[in-house]
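Build the 3D complex.
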Amino acid sequence: MLPAYGLHMVDVAIVGAGQTKYGNHQLGMKGMWAEAARCAFDSVDKDFYPKQIDEAFIGSVAFGGGQLGNTAALLTEHSGMQGKPVRRVENACASSGFALRDAWMAIKSGQADVVVAGGIEKMNDLTPERKRYWLGVSGDTEWERLAGLTFPGTYALMARRYFHEFDSTHDDLVHISVKNHHHGLENNVAHIRKDVSFDKAKSGFMVADPLTLYDCCPTSDGASCVILAADHVVKQYTDDPVWINASAAASDYLALHDRPSITQLLATQIAAKKAYSMAGMTAKDIDLAEVHDCFTIAELLATEDLGFANRGEAGLFAREGRGRRNEGDVCINPSGGLKSKGHPLGATGTGQTVEIFKQLRGEVESVRQVKDAEVALSHNVGGSGATCAVHVYGREK
Amino acid sequence: MQVTRMWQGYLIQSNGDNHFINSPWKLGNECVFGYDSDYTTMAISLIRLLSIEKSSISLSSIDEKINQQTIIAATQIEFDPSGYHIKCNDDASLQVYLHEELVFDLAFDNMQGIDEEKYIKISNAWQEESNIMNTSQGAYVSGQQYDQTLESRLSLVAQNHQGIIWPQRQMDSEGTYITKSFIKIKPFGTVTSWTRLSAAGAPSEFAVRAPILGGISSVMVETSDGPNGVFLLVDDIPTSPKIGDSVEIVVRMLYAQEGVVRYGTKAIITNQS
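Done.
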């Protein structure tokens, strides 16, 4: 009899992971991808060659339209993978979260033993005008965009409503911003590495009322790459794998106005519930979580949707610092999250996995290490919550 | 002297079968359009009023300055040789009459002076936007896509399928195809959330005018018939919305591209909570 979720014939591990620094890159797409792939290849403990890869899934929004078609083929030929079956995966900001899930399923299905999941986005080589066009392509264009809404606007609507329904104010978002900036301070690959005071974050330039600049992630360039292997070949590559113990995903209405509630993301709730069930765990078992904080309100909502706080209590959770590294219940965004580490759309999902791979193997900068980290979760959201991929990782399978 | 009344952000005077609508804004002694109004939006507003006050109305002729497709989509008005005529004036006013045009005087006492510098900048911005070469390079609502949802957008045409559905959908959550039905939701509702976007946060369709306006405001509205929607606030009535405010949904210019003005629905705060 099959288990409740997924195919359990093969277990899947991460044997290598790497990424570029996030930020304003001088490298083009080919160069960034090659760098991320090389970092991932070099991170494999034993001998590894690109020819051992069976398949690759590359997440990208193809920002700017420079390479909308055949992105994956173009990039992977620059990392020694020519001849392999490759494809681009697109689900807005959740593109590489879904690429990771596709790679996981390719191994689960028995069709592949070694699969690459990665992501890339080059965003800072565009004029501000063209950049703004592309920052609004993943909502319900026909209705939301014509109502003046880009993502700062849609998340601002969620924030304002949340404050109205629950005991929460913008100060709670400021706490999240301060925490994530602090977590990212010593992260060598983070886009914005600076501590921010509460007062400074509170008084930032208003982007979309009530969200200020300090509530919004930066526009980043970057690439990330992880190498997955089936359990029967893992030993060829490492004695210290990180296991993907659950992969789940869900979707929701694209437009905010079609959803019954805008103070919770249904796709996250569904994906999290499936992932916990598959892993045989609950939110209480998670030591660290890379959470999709494209805006601080997104982290606040995810804190509830992922089960770290009860409904309506994420503001209190933030105020009490329960997501801080080595101080709270669970370390939320030890990398600095999208807010500090950065958000190169298509690269973000597998970038979260790179952080988790290193955290669980004790390989991050010592000051950033989450103590006794055994179990981790990644949460990658597309747009204003219409798509979501949740993965649970462990030192043990 | 005619009685002047405010309707959907415009001033209305009536005398028998003659009806006069004008912008509430003046520049010196001239009546000028608000920042997102034109003859088409004012004509729609007046026809809607007449449709409410009279059992049925039809049109005999429309001034060429008015976008006929938009008028029909927004009001579903039909044409009949015995119907009304719409004639635009040289300023920001127009008249709807049945037989013979009367002379109406502008009710200057009820009008407000407009910020001249801002007015000129906005007028120039609309000209720039309306250039045939101006088009989106990314997210893009094509002419065909815009036209397909025009009735739903402008006159809030909805579906009745186990409850009222708006905007219209192809299938319900069970995968059942929803047949096209013609009901309209009432253009009233309550603000459930709102934001004001800085010029930098606004979509690029609004990039030319948003800096002049000092940003744009959007509201999420629960309509009185149930469905939710998101709308811009009208550009020429400065308001700080609050959750719980009552709104009326009206037609205004949204933006222009490829030489065509795109019209849509915006919200006017009618009763602050």
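The longest helix of chain A spans residues 29-43.
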